[in-house]
Design goal:
The complex is a heterodimer. Chain A has 6 helices and no strands. By secondary structure, chain A is an all-alpha fold. In chain A, helix 2 crosses helix 5. Chain A is globular, with a radius of gyration of 20 Å. Chain B contains 9 helices and no strands. Classes of the chains: A mainly alpha, B mainly alpha.
């Protein structure tokens, strides 16, 4: 696992070279367009993380396996880290592309609402403490939060149909496409790697707590 | 019949002390006043912010009600009695949901004269279309509020968590309600997309609440 992590780090350096050197400069936006190669893969990984939280929340409520709950928890944690990156890289790009850091635009607002919701999810975990009850509560929230995503998106879409400012069908050159898909794949693999490591850590933590409890019972 | 008994129990308790309704109404009046002060009661500005101000006020007021209604069963271990009774858990959700909906609706009705006075809007002439917006929005609000107030009854920092969890979830509902209310205030036609959004929201979260409520109750 550690070797694989080191390999990923190396690949990220190569990815940077691909983005900066291999992919050509975009004609109108120039250097700032390079953010796109990070922003989109990171956003995708964040959504994937929250989706995993949703799935494992359902699984926990159905089969009451304590490990499902921990997976839902750590995935939400990682998703929130990725969304912080999304909300940092987005405005930097928007300053040049849209002329202002923040526009009330569907995808941006949906991302922000999701980020707030899952921050609240993590707070619920913190204030609830370690118990079956908290696990059940968090699972319910994980499901409800995900159900809300399409509603938030469409409400923002109808609210201001004229500002749907995220680029669609951008005519990418072949080299740009190659660089983008490599970056997308790399970030997805990196996310999965981080998730697996985090689950490993969470397993160890739960084992340690079990041992500790045994020790105190004696 | 069983449902009516459950609802009646909560309404009767509320009728005896009137805590929730009084608190919510006083709060609503106060916040509406503060909104008027915040824009220095400039008539044009007041008219502009009225739809948003009204719904934000209701949202905060509703939080107070949700907590009260969820806390009723904490006294004398009454929740235990309810749980051992041969009642379907989803019925418990529907009953609490109904009580929340009725109480908030009552507060909304009581606040109408204030909206007319403070914001200078002939709100009673618009009640035909406005009442539908109020009903559909309050249904969604009550579904989310009932679910999360039941969740947070036994959690520390619940006062902070309640708005933190419910408000982001209520964003689509709030946008639809504000847009529709603005259309009514300006005498425009209602957009069916917003009405559909309200309907979809209500159906999704009343169903989700009915299914998920039992996971919040297991002891």
């Amino acid at each position: 696992m550690t070797v694989f992590g080191a390999l990923l780090l190396l690949l990220h350096f190569m990815n940077l070279m691909m983005i900066m050197v291999y992919a050509p400069l975009e004609a109108t936006m120039g250097l700032i367009q390079k953010i796109f190669y990070y922003h989109v893969p990171v956003a995708w990984s964040g959504f994937l993380a929250y989706f995993i939280t949703f799935i494992f929340s359902i699984l926990y409520l159905v089969r009451k396996n304590e490990r499902d709950d921990r997976i839902a928890h750590v995935s939400a944690e990682l998703g929130t880290v990725f969304f912080v990156l999304v909300l940092i890289t987005g405005p930097i790009w928007a300053r040049y592309a849209w002329g202002s850091y923040w526009v009330w635009e569907p995808r941006l607002t949906t991302s922000f609402v999701l980020f707030i919701l899952f921050s609240a999810y993590l707070l619920l975990r913190r204030f609830g403490g370690h118990s079956d009850k908290t696990a059940r509560y968090a699972s319910v929230l994980g499901i409800i939060a995900f159900l809300d995503v399409p509603l938030v998106y469409f409400s923002m879409h109808w609210w201001a149909p004229e500002i749907s400012a995220h680029p669609r069908n951008i005519g990418l050159q072949t080299e740009m496409k190659t660089a983008f898909f490599i970056s997308l794949a790399l970030f997805t693999v990196t996310f999965i790697y981080m998730l697996l490591r985090r689950i490993e850590l969470s397993d160890l933590d739960s084992e340690y707590m079990a041992l500790n409890r045994n020790l105190q019972d004696r | 019949m069983l449902l009516w008994n459950l609802v009646r129990k909560d309404l009767l308790l509320e009728w005896k002390n009137k805590d929730a309704v009084l608190a919510m109404t006083a709060f609503t009046a106060l916040v509406l006043l503060l909104f008027a002060i915040a824009v220095e009661s400039i008539p044009a500005l007041l008219r502009d912010i009225a739809p948003g101000a009204v719904w934000i006020t209701y949202l905060f007021a509703a939080i107070l009600g949700f907590n009260r209604v969820a806390m009723v069963e904490r006294e004398n271990n009454a929740m235990y009695t309810l749980l051992v009774a041969p009642i379907d858990r989803s019925l418990l959700f529907i009953s609490k949901f109904t009580v929340n909906f009725l109480l908030i609706s009552l507060v909304q009705v009581l606040s109408l004269p204030l909206i007319m006075l403070f914001f200078n809007i002939d709100i009673f002439l618009m009640m035909g279309s406005l009442s539908w917006i109020f009903i559909l929005t309050t249904l969604g609000m009550s579904a989310i509020g009932t679910l999360f107030s039941a969740m947070l009854v036994n959690i520390r920092m619940k006062d902070v968590l309640m708005p933190l969890l419910t408000f982001p979830l209520l964003v689509p509902l709030l946008i639809a309600a504000v847009s529709l209310t603005r259309a009514v205030f300006n005498g425009q036609e209602l957009q069916s997309t917003w009405v559909n959004l309200l309907l979809a929201y209500d159906v999704i979260f009343i169903t989700a609440g009915t299914i998920l409520y039992e996971f919040l109750l297991e002891e």
